[in-house]
Write a structure and sequence with these properties.
By secondary structure, this protein is mainly alpha-helical. It has 3 helices and 2 strands; from the N terminus they run H-H-E-E-H. It has one domain: Glutaredoxin (3-Layer(aba) Sandwich). Strand 1 and strand 2 form a beta hairpin.
Length: 72
């Protein structure tokens, strides 16, 4: 969570928010939260557990890249 906030402080194109799963049960169910931390970047594949800064950066960059699948 702190890493996400640090990224948001450094770049205005990044926003971060932490959700208390016990208070927002519908949102927790929607993201299939079974343990914490669970990081979801742009609604893409979530990552469970703490991760190093480089791995988090890779997740953010991958989520920021548009999908290339589908019709042109």
């Amino acid at each position: 969570m702190l890493l996400a906030y640090a990224f948001a402080l450094e770049n205005r194109n990044v926003t971060a928010e932490a959700i208390e799963a016990q208070e927002f049960m519908d949102l927790a169910r929607a993201h299939r939260v079974m343990g914490v931390p669970r990081t979801v970047v742009n609604g893409k594949e979530p990552v469970d557990g703490a991760m190093p800064e480089t791995a988090f950066l890779e997740s953010v960059l991958a989520a920021a890249t548009p999908d290339t699948e589908g019709p042109p």
